[in-house]
Write a structure and sequence with these properties.
Its main location: membrane. The protein is mainly α. The protein is built from 17 helices and no strands. Helix 1 runs antiparallel to helix 7 and helix 7 packs antiparallel against helix 16.
Length: 424
């Protein structure tokens, strides 16, 4: 006998926890390669130009952005679970391509497939968690989701760096990805349940805001209208989209550039792995606090402060030239990102109607994950022309402008929802 659908974290604790675990595996697929691939580019394939080295980050970012849009559209049309399963099927060849790659083109191809995997799976787990918890604990849900994903990025980056140092750049680090993919397919295929029914229940209870905002965003919007509102017109949605793009511009730059910058100080592979893991580790752990905090104090000020903190952290990294200063800078960058990442997703959940929530999340994540490509290309061009430190300074300036934009344009989207009354 099927249990009645209920909204809330406690009522859906088992499925929510399962989806958190699956999203950790999604993050681990990125972490397996972040420390290793820049070193593989220089040491194995003899690449020297920064722009050329960053092609794999750009390929990943563009593909993931497109996959995000597909994930949002298909999850609203066909359901969340089929999209999640399809995403994991695209992950199967990724570690094998990286292990056997005879040239850099294979690495780029692997990152195209990885981008599809990440777009389909991460977008879908985000939407499914928003579906399950309802409006009252949206920030907490996104904090737990993103903490699991980026905590796994950090742990896997650290483990991959250790494996590379002990056993070589290939194949040991990429065996992690094979294990993650097998486990995720097993869990997604057997234990995950569809959550679109929860979204429909939420839609039935969806009421207008007391302040009149969002009244123009009625339940029936076309795909073009959702794209326009999320990208340009609606102040909170479009502010979140630009902040997300800049946030991942920073991440894309760090992915391709930080290992090379850190290597200029003659650090070991293990030390570089530790520095790189510190950023997503602080980011991941911090989201356990910041997601729930946004449910209490609101979204806007956390996002503004977070983008400003990222700008300051990048300035510290640009000024540094050794392990200690870079560790402080990457940790501060993680703090700023933790303030922003789950809170932006909560903003989308606050504003988007449950009927088109999946598509709004998809459009937001298109813009956010284009930041990978923008960071890789712009960072590579500036680094080639002016040096590695100049590329970091440029990104710090962009982050500061993003913080100002959010402060001026975004309104507070979170309205506290009273806890359900207990009977009896």
């Amino acid at each position: 006998m099927n249990r009645p659908i209920q909204l809330g974290l406690r009522a859906n604790a088992a499925q929510f926890t399962l989806l958190v675990a699956i999203n950790a595996l999604v993050g681990g697929m990125v972490g397996q390669q972040q420390t290793v691939l820049p070193l593989l580019a220089t040491d194995v394939f003899g690449l020297t130009g920064y722009t050329f080295i960053f092609t794999y980050v750009a390929a990943f970012g563009v593909t993931k952005a497109i996959a995000n849009y597909v994930a949002g559209t298909f999850s609203d049309r066909y359901g969340r679970r089929p999209v999640l399963l399809a995403g994991w099927l695209f992950a199967v060849p990724v570690p094998l391509l990286l292990i056997w790659a005879p040239n850099w083109g294979w690495v780029v191809a692997a990152n195209v497939l990885l981008g599809i995997n990440q777009g389909l799976t991460w977008s879908t787990t985000v939407v499914m968690k928003i579906d399950l918890v309802g409006p009252r604990q949206r920030g907490l849900a996104m904090g737990l989701n993103e903490a699991a994903g980026y905590g796994a990025v950090a742990v896997t980056s650290l483990v991959a760096g250790y494996l590379a140092e002990q056993y070589g750049l290939r194949p040991a680090p990429f065996l992690l990805g094979l294990c993650y993919t097998a486990l995720a397919l097993l869990l997604s295929g057997i234990l995950v349940r569809e959550t679109r029914g929860h979204a429909l229940l939420d839609a039935g209870r969806h009421g207008a805001r007391a302040d009149g905002l969002h009244d123009h965003l009625h339940a029936e919007l076309s795909n073009r209208e959702i794209l326009t509102q999320t990208s340009l017109k609606e102040p909170a949605l479009s502010s979140a989209s630009q902040a997300g793009l800049v946030n991942n511009l920073n991440f894309g730059l760090s992915w391709g550039l930080f290992p090379l910058l850190f290597a200029t100080a003659d650090l070991s592979v293990g030390q570089i792995g530790l520095l790189f893991a510190l950023y997503p580790a602080v980011w991941g752990a911090g989201q356990l606090v910041t997601g729930a905090l946004s449910d209490r104090i609101g979204r806007k000020h956390l996002i503004t402060t977070g983008m400003a903190t990222q700008a300051a952290a990048l300035a510290v990294i640009a000024l540094g030239d050794g392990f200690t200063v870079w560790a402080a800078g990457t940790a501060l960058l993680g703090v700023g990102t933790a303030m922003v990442y789950p809170t932006l997703l909560a903003v989308i959940g606050d504003v988007a109607h449950p009927i088109w929530r999946g598509r709004a999340v998809g459009v937001y994540r298109v813009w956010r994950d284009l930041g990978y490509a923008v960071g890789a290309v712009v960072g590579g061009i500036v680094a080639d022309a002016l040096g590695l430190h100049a590329a970091v300074w440029a990104t710090a300036a962009v982050s500061a402008v993003s913080a100002i934009t959010v402060a001026v344009r975004m309104y507070e989207t979170h309205q506290p929802v009273p806890a359900p009354q207990r009977r009896g």
